[in-house]
Each structure stands twice: as structure tokens, then as C-alpha cells.
Design a protein that fits this description.
Radius of gyration: 15 Å
CATH topology: Arp2/3 complex 21 kDa subunit ARPC3
Number of helices: 8
Helix content: 55-70%
Structural class: mainly alpha
Distance between the termini: 10 Å
Oligomer: single chain
Largest sheet: 2 strands, antiparallel
Strand order of the largest sheet: 1-2
Length: 171
């Protein structure tokens, strides 16, 4: 694949991540939000080799870090990275690059789906819970209840949708 085509694909996926972060809504009992961004990050992992996926994820994190409103709900800045939900943001380059590394050679819905659920969900929530506990000072059980448990069913669904889409999209 040519460098121009590869860079264009990467840029489009960064743009799609930025747009998908606006497709989100809050829950009244937690600072974390439900978002379409996690679905798109699974697509990034499935559609790119690990090095390119890592670059795309880091570019996205850096765009938000410098203050562009690309994070969930149209937010950005260092305050978001070091705020109650910043742990989630820090997890994304780790979790989704690892998914790209472990996706396997076979393009298969079930292969993608179980890997997405088993790799990304635990890593993302481990970082998110830890970040929430550090910043807010709440205990583990409160962090688990506010930062993870309400979101897991939706994240499983988004992993399934991303897995299905990744088997259908040929770039």
C-alpha cells in the first residue's frame, strides 16, 4: 500500500474518532459517558496494523491534550486527561493497540468479537477505575459501580458491532 493511501486511511480514522466522540450522552450517576468512540477505536484496531493503530490513537489523544474539543462530549485539554475520566483516555493507546496486535490473521466476526471484549474492556476499565479512584478519592467498589458496571453491556454490544463492521469493510 502506498504511503499516501496509508496516511489518508489513518487521517480518516482519526477524523472518525473525533466525530464519534460527539455521539455520546451522560448518565446521571457518573462522570463517565456512553459514547460511540469505543466502537470506532475497535475499528481502528481491526483495520490497521499495530504500529499504525498506535499512531492513530496517540494522535487522537494528543489532539485532545492540546485543547481541541475532540474528547467525549466535545471536551479537550489537559484537565480532561488528568480529571476523573482521564484514566479511560490513557488506556486507549494501550488497549486498542494490544487488540490490533492480537486480532489474528483470520478476518472473522467471532474471532474479532471475543478478542475485542476480552482485551479492550478489562484494560479500559482498569485504567478508568484507577484514574477515577486517584482523582476523586473514592473507593474501589464505588469506582466499579460508577465507572464500569453500567457501561459493560453497551461496550460488549459496541465490540460486536465493530467486529461485524470490520468483517464487511475492505480498505
Amino acid at each position: 500500500m502506498s504511503d499516501v493511501r496509508k496516511l489518508t486511511k489513518m487521517a480518516l480514522l482519526v477524523a472518525l474518532m473525533c466525530i464519534s466522540a460527539y455521539i455520546s450522552f451522560p448518565l446521571p450517576f457518573t462522570p463517565a459517558m456512553v459514547t460511540a468512540l469505543t466502537l470506532v477505536m475497535c475499528l481502528v484496531a481491526f483495520m490497521l496494523p499495530p504500529k499504525e493503530a498506535f499512531i492513530v490513537l496517540c494522535v487522537y489523544v494528543l489532539l485532545g491534550a492540546v485543547g481541541l474539543p475532540v474528547y467525549v462530549g466535545g471536551t479537550g485539554g489537559l484537565g480532561k486527561l488528568f480529571g476523573p475520566t482521564g484514566g479511560f483516555i490513557w488506556s486507549w493507546p494501550v488497549a486498542y493497540t494490544l487488540l490490533s496486535i492480537c486480532k489474528g490473521k483470520t478476518v472473522s466476526f467471532w474471532s474479532y468479537a471475543w478478542r475485542a471484549c476480552v482485551i479492550t474492556i478489562p484494560i479500559t476499565y482498569a485504567f478508568g477505575i484507577a484514574g477515577g479512584m486517584i482523582v476523586t478519592g473514592i473507593g474501589f467498589n464505588a469506582a466499579l459501580a460508577g465507572y464500569a458496571l453500567p457501561f459493560i453491556p453497551g461496550d460488549i454490544f459496541k465490540c460486536l458491532v465493530a467486529s461485524w463492521l470490520a468483517t464487511k469493510i475492505r480498505l
